[in-house]
Amino acid sequence: MPFPEGVPSVPVRYSITSAAGGGPGEGTLQLMPTVPAVRIPGADGVFTGGGTYQFVDGQLADSQGEQVRLLPTNINGANPAVWAWLGIESINGQPPRHFYFTLGTDQDDVDLGTIQQLAPDLTQYLAVPGESAYDAWRRAGNDGDEGDFLASLVGPPGDIAAANDYTDEQLGQGLAAEVARANTAYDPAGAASTAQSAAIAAASSDAAGKSASAQAAAISAASSDAAAKASTAQSNAVAAAAAAAASLYLPKALLTVDAFMAQSGTKVFGHRGAGMVCPEHTEVAYDYAISHGIQAMELSVNVDSEGQLWCLHDLTLDRTTYNSGTLNTYPSTGVAQRVLTNGRVMLGQGWTDQPMVPLRRMLDKYLGKVVLFLEPKGNDAVVPLQNLLATSYPHAPASVIWKAHVGTSFVWPKQQGYRTWCYVDDGSSNAVLDGKDSLVDYWGVSTSMSSTRRKEIVARGKPVFSWPVYRRSQRAALEADGVVGLMSSDPVYVRGTTAQATASRWDQQVKESGGTPQTDYNTDAALKFSEADGWVSINRARGTYGLGRYCPIVPGAGGYRIQIELKYDQINTADLAVHGGLYFGKASDDPYEFNTVNPSAGYHLILRHNGVLRLYRHVTTQTGGIQIGAADIATDAPVAGQPMTIQIDVTPTTIEARRLGNPAWTTGPIADTTNRGGYFGLSNGSISDTAARPHWRNLLITQL
Q: How buried is 409 (Cβ within 10 angstroms: 0-12 exposed, 13-18 middle, 19+ buried)?
């Protein structure tokens, strides 16, 4: 590669052979400095060098077929002064190998193949070329051959007792000290290298000193003893350092992808953290999921104008923050100090606006502790993410799944050893999937895809994950199709099977886990919280809202009771027959809508604006409900803004609805055992004018 005038460079060469045929090998060698840039004294600008080089007929060459030249790592006055070269070797389709090396300004030509690593199986070791003891003796001004050098090591006779002091106990104490130093090191390579070098140096120095003072008659025995113990010390130090490295940060807390996938049962992942319960892709959303035992979560990634990566699903800030425009037009400081998420709009005004979270913070906090799905959402975020992982998190492949659309490339993550999740479009053909199959570990299908097509993709033989999963009913359908992983924005609810509460706390003004509006990620369908007194409503014509937090209701021996307050802030005097109320008795948490064919059966209670109370049974074969009970129950007409208390008793054999305040305001026990499901929710019924919609508060579930 060309270098500016006055900037030194060192030619390097490297030869490889094919493991299969023995001829010239094929592959690439990526060379990059371990620092972002190096400033050279007297040269304009900075050096960011490196690149990916091919092996031509087994020989490393640059793009013009010439010998590769690299910047020395010890240029006097360079800033930074301490750095090294990282080599990422991809040979003949084998897993990538990482190694580090330094280059001196006085080296005329360097063969990378001769660089000896202290432990070749620990690929993060920094291999530093050195010189022999004989060479050091000559460099110190001595003349003579190797025999003269060896003769110079023999000193005058010493005390035999001093030689015998070189005991196993002393050596063991020295070794233990070095092992302790290795155990405290973060970097496994540095730990092993430091422990090994220190142990060898200590043993050699000790042996040489005591041998020099030993009597001539004991020199042979002491030398033999020193050599044996030094060899043992070296072996023990390397073994101890390797063991220490195996128990450092990642192994201590690591949940690998393979270990996670080996767990039994359906896997539930946090989608956008927990984006239907907390502001999506914020630290509080990730913390919520992990603190509730979710072992895998998704981190969508985009980049700002300075190259910093942030957790963000969209390319723009419009949907999830109070700002607008693409993230890549904002400086890092502006994002950190001025951009807040607008989760309060959909999740309730009880939320505090949240700052955006840098990707590095989440990697430092959770990498190795849970499985992370990483996806660069914009093309400009791909390379920064790759560079960040390669330079700062080389251990990431063990616990990270690279997530990407079927239309993108999976070559890089597979070369680096990552597991890959390829999510496909509902209309993606088998030919498209075949083209990606060799690079894909897991397939992704949407909940909108037909069951037949999902089963076809499951039949391809690789684990299939689905997104977005909001309801337990979706989970059941996906599991029936053979899907083994669920990407859910309400992972705690979707994972569960039982009710989380029996009494509402809507005065908190925050969306609850298990809340299922007719349309997710839709502010119109979201539950609305009043500023005072704990009232909630649905600001949508004919809207409904599932209360999964309280489901399935667990009945007592005599059944269960639902009690709730209801009010209308505005009475529709033009049509007093309009109504709102509750739906209940459903075996599933699938969406419900009044006067519509619904996927599962149940009951609904209505309270009209003229005070008429009715109970209906709804079925899956017709739009209108079937009234149960002998007649309408006439109660006093509602008064705008005045609360009314509704009570529903469900026993093993009967159903009864009441409006409290008058003993006559009851349907009486109705003999009906058709539906006994435990899922229920709020309903705007027939109301299309949202000003006249119902409001609810003080929900209470009790056993009978």
A: exposed
CB 100 within 8 A of CB 82: no
pLDDT tens-place string over residues 591-614 = 999 999 999 999 999 999 999 999
Residue 467 bridge partners (DSSP): 446
- Give the global pTM: 0.66
Q: Cβ contacts of residue 552 below 8 Å, gap of 6+?
A: 498, 499, 677, 678, 679
Identify whether the C-beta of residue 309 lies closer than 8 Å to the C-beta of residue 385. Answer: yes
Contact 199, 181 (CB under 8 A): no
- Cα 300 to chain centroid distance, Å, stands at 9
Q: What is the rounded CA–CA span in Å between residue 467 and residue 423?
A: 9
How far, in Å, are 192, 491, 595, 653 from residue 619 at the CA level? 70, 30, 10, 19
Instruction: Kindly state the tokens that stand for 225.
Output: 């003893």
* Predicted confidence (pLDDT) at residue 628 exceeds the cutoff of 50: yes
- 411 backbone φψ class: left, alpha, beta (φ>0; ψ -120 to 50): alpha
Residues whose CB is less than 8 angstroms from the CB of residue 404 and which lie 6 or more positions away in sequence, other chains included: 375, 376, 410, 413, 420, 421, 422, 423
3-state secondary structure string, 528-554?
EECCCCCCEEECCCCCEEEEHHHCCCC
Instruction: Give the integer Cα–Cα distance in Å for 63 and 462.
Output: 39
Single out the residue of 401, 413, 412, 336 nearest to residue 367, CA to CA. Answer: 401
Confidence category of residue 203, pLDDT binned at 50, 70, 90: low
- Which parts of 437-484 fold into alpha helices (H)? 451-458, 472-480
